[in-house]
Amino acid sequence: MSKMGCTCGHSIIDRTDNVPYKGHLIKDQDKDVIFEGIASDVSLYIESLLTENQQEWLNRFPWLQGKDHRAVVWGIITQYYLKYIPHIYECENCGRLWIQENRKSQKFRSYLPSNPEIKGILRSDQLS
Ligand SMILES: [Zn+2]
């Protein structure tokens, strides 16, 4: 999604990183699959390094062959991110939340806050 129209008429634009009105949703029923999967795949990678036998690992992640360690771990995390973690946007005008139905869908469901003054829920607490 690079641009989406909100019900209020405002345009929600996503063309850069660190968008203050964008988030990523981890569904509780997917949480264990995501974290266990990442831990398992990173562990398998480490074991392949320690045993100097990367064939099993390369069979699962052939596109990561030849990458440095950071890029390998990043690639593993990204694989789960792209599969399981939908996007969520907040309209800066009306505060409405738009949640992607699932990671493969282009459809979003909207939720309007009970108090129209509630805005900025997706802004980082680390940057304030
Ligand atoms: Zn709106």
TrEMBL record:
- Superkingdom of origin organism: Bacteria
Q: What is the official name of this protein in its record?
A: Transposase
Q: From what organism does this protein derive? A: Nostoc piscinale CENA21
